[in-house]
Amino acid sequence: MSTDRVRKRKVLCVLPSMNGGGAEKVMLLLLSGLDRKRHQLTLVLFEKKGALLHDVPQDIQIHCLNKRGKLDAIYLPGRLAGYIEKVQPDVVLSFLWYANIMNVLASRFWRHNVPIIISVHNFLSVSLTIQRYSKIKRLFTSLFFPMADEVIAVSQAAKRDLICNFKVPKSKISVITNGIDKEQVAKHSAEQPESNIFDDTVPVIIAVGRLSKQKGFDLLIRTFAKVREKHKVKLLILGEGEERAELEHLSAELGLSDYVSMPGFVSNPYTYIKRSFLYVMSSNFEGFPVVLLEVMACGTPIISTNCTSGPDEILEDRITGILVQVGDIEALNNAICNLLNDPEYAKQLAEIAKHRVNDWTIESMVNNHERLLAKYCI
After folding, report:
1. Cis ω before 304 (30° cut-off from 0)
2. Beta carbons of 156 and 162 less than 8 angstroms apart
3. What is the pLDDT, as a whole number, of residue 378?
4. Helices 290-298 and 182-189, axial angle in degrees (round to 10)
5. HEC readout, the chain
6. How do residues 18-34 score in pLDDT, each as one tens digit?
7. In this predicted model, what pLDDT tens digit does every residue of 190-199 receive, in sequence order?
8. What CDD domains does the record tag this protein with (predicted)?
9. What pLDDT is recorded for position 4?
10. What are the structural domains of the chain?
């Protein structure tokens, strides 16, 4: 056995797919940032698909468990355990609820004895309530998450949620907040957008995220209708998802079809964010929203719902952004109109936020993961 092999930590990173969400972006940053001299990395996917699949670093081996349909899910823990037995990693790190459950099942019921770390990127007591089979998922979370060797929470609020609502021992939880690659954000934000939505006469309000109930885009569109009563402004929502038809119908119903644009997923949202007057996050819940950090790096003012969890751990109200109560259309309308009426104040918020984003670097996030991995890689 070579000294090089002994020196490297063999890490399996597990995800359902490489769809274009925040957790997948964080995984990409980890795969790019972890030191290759100390880590041998393999990405394990249930399905080899997703908008971010082509962004996986070329030196990362990808192993697919070939999930075929919903019923095939019952075989995933066995396939994962079999692959773990074959490659004998030092540790298995999974992101997102589905992958986390499969990671625990593969460990505890196929008994492969490899340490497992699960990473939680949402406020589960809220996020699971709006999903199908929510009661079963809550039960599974309470049963299986405490069985992990270590649980990563992306915010202090998410940590409290795991302790209070899902019986995860405090001693097993490490809080590692997400970070961003400021240089990459700056580079991509300098590119020219493909859309011609921008001109000098009409401000653009932008939002980015999956078109799902979590993101509260229905609230944003209803609020936008009130904003339009006093201001000539456009709304741009970047992202794709199951709520598209409903949101398009709502826009048409409110007479906003000519003023609301939803072009779908775009590979470079930063160029649109940088050129927009204002970013609005209308979410009902989050984990630790990376997008707020990316917007801060772009220098665009932010208004966000103060949802659980993350926004109030990132934004200082009325200093680096504006926080409003979840579901309060009137408060969101007032906040948007106030910034439209006072662009100098909006600019001031953005400038302070752009400086504060230095607190969430990719280097800090990667280093914290490396320290945690080292704990289980002897």
Report:
1. no
2. no
3. 66
4. 60
5. CCHHHHHCEEEEEEECCCCCCHHHHHHHHHHHHCCCCCEEEEEEECCCCCCCHHHCCCCCEEEECCCCCCHHHHHHHHHHHHHHHHHCCCEEEEECHHHHHHHHHHHHHHCCCCCEEEEECCCHHHHHHHCCCHHHHHHHHHHHHHHCCEEEECCHHHHHHHHHHHCCCHHHEEECCCCECHHHHHHHHCCCCCCCCCCCCCCEEEEECCCCHHHCHHHHHHHHHHHHCCCCCEEEEECCCCCHHHHHHHHHHCCCCCCEEEEECCCCCHHHHHHCCEEEECCCECCCCHHHHHHHHHCCCEEEECCECCHHHHCCECCCEEEECCCCHHHHHHHHHHHHHCHHHHHHHHHHHHHHHHHCEHHHHHHHHHHHHHHHCC
6. 997 889 999 999 999 99
7. 999 988 889 8
8. GT4_GT28_WabH-like
9. 47
10. 3-179+361-376 (3.40.50.2000), 182-359 (3.40.50.2000)
* CA quadruple 96, 97, 99, 100: dihedral sign: positive
